[in-house]
Amino acid sequence: MGALDLLMVAGEASGDLKGARLLARLRSIEPRLRPFGLGGEELRAGGLETLADSSEVAVVGITEALKVLPRARRIYRRLLAAVEERRAEAAVLIDFAEFNLRLARDLERRGLKVLYYVSPQIWAWRPGRVRTVARVVDRMLVLFPFEVEFYRQAGVEAVHVGHPVVDEVPRDLPQAWDRESGRPAVFRLALLPGSRPSEVTALLSPLLAAAGRLAAGSPGGLPVQVSVIRASTIPRRRLEDAIAAAGLEARVVEGGERFAAIAGAHLALCASGTATLEVGLLGTPMVVVYRVSPATYLVGRLLARPLPYVSLVNLVLGRRVVPELLQRAVSPGQIAAEAAALLADGERIAAMRAALAGLRERLGAPGASGRAAREVAACLGWPAAVPEPEVARP
């Protein structure tokens, strides 16, 4: 038998990483697999033939998306042309809702079997789109248990496979608040400005300015050491230039070193997204920041279901464990004030760390990528692809 062409589409760094882990498992099940599509460094290293790089279209917000719309349309047409040329029979779409839900409709019309991995947050943002999912997606593989019921009510076949971040984040890295008895000699601060260029544009400058204010007047006058965590989608030079422009002493941390740097920090200033789960699993106290254009925020308020929190870590834990600064509150002064108040309050730090200790259990058992791969294989009729017993089906 010949090769099996499979379209895979991931439009941002977190989806790229999840897709790469899934692809590795899929290739162990079906060696004839020939994946192609849209991805970044991780998927490309895992064997995906990338027709375009996800960094070309990774943005947050409506007005931000308009800036890359012509490029996104070209990539969209290129993907559909490749599907027809290769006569692909199936696709795995990963998050990236505005692009992938539209793509799913065109793929379904062409007779492809469509699997969606990592549910877009349509349960919060324009929930009416679940009707589109019901028409064009054959199976939805979700990361959080509550998503299964949401899709079940709409008639979508959804399977909870768990969150792959549980496997990716080490358990036993030394944590800053455990290493020192009593008062530390220096406060270590980790900045996570996001994985999309538009996020970094919105957040990096105020985060660096806030870090500068903390360095100039930290609690107790202690020195502050700053690390900036680089996502694979963001050029290192961009971070280094911003650090130099801010006049701040800081090091850029990337790759496998990022987990140790986050665990070794007393506090993280973190863009809302999957990164908050990584920080939380490492037990590092954090302040979450979120800012998009005013137009995007206004439209979001009109179209989104009201949610009590914006950060995944608070949503998963079901209560406000970490502070969230939104929109105008994402200013150097307010970020620095919130960070200084946390660093000076040992009881609040201890309570936050105790709450974060329950995050791993809430995210499910290890092995999410393997369970997702078996679901894909079973849906596509590959041999010996039996889902694990603990995977809950609707």
Describe this structure in words.
This protein is an alpha/beta fold. It is built from 19 helices and 13 strands. It has a seven-stranded parallel β-sheet with strand order 3-2-1-4-5-6-7, with helices on both faces. α10 packs parallel to α11. It is globular. 47% of the residues are buried.
Attribute tags:
394 residues, globular, 6-stranded parallel beta sheet, 19 helices, 13 strands
The structural class is alpha/beta
Low-confidence stretches: 60-64, 386-394
Beta-strand proportion: 15-25%
Q: What is the radius of gyration?
A: 21 Å
Whole-Å distance between the termini?
Answer: 34 Å
Strand tally = 13
Biggest sheet overview:
7 strands, parallel
Q: Approximately how much helix is present in the residues?
A: 40-55%
The overall pLDDT, averaged over residues, is: 87
Number of contiguous helices: 19
Strand order of the largest sheet: 3-2-1-4-5-6-7
Shape: globular
Summarize the helices and strands and which ones pair or pack.
Layout: E1 4-10, H1 13-29, E2 33-39, H2 41-45, E3 49-53, H3 62-67, H4 69-86, E4 90-94, H5 97-109, E5 113-117, H6 130-136, E6 139-142, H7 145-153, E7 158-160, H8 165-168, H9 176-179, E8 187-192, H10 197-216, E9 224-229, H11 236-246, E10 250-253, H12 257-263, E11 267-271, H13 274-281, E12 286-290, H14 294-303, H15 312-317, E13 324-326, H16 332-343, H17 346-356, H18 359-362, H19 368-380
Parallel strand pairs: 1-2, 1-4, 2-3, 4-5, 5-6, 6-7, 8-9, 8-11, 9-10, 11-12, 12-13
Helix pairs in contact: 1-19, 4-5, 5-6, 10-11, 10-16
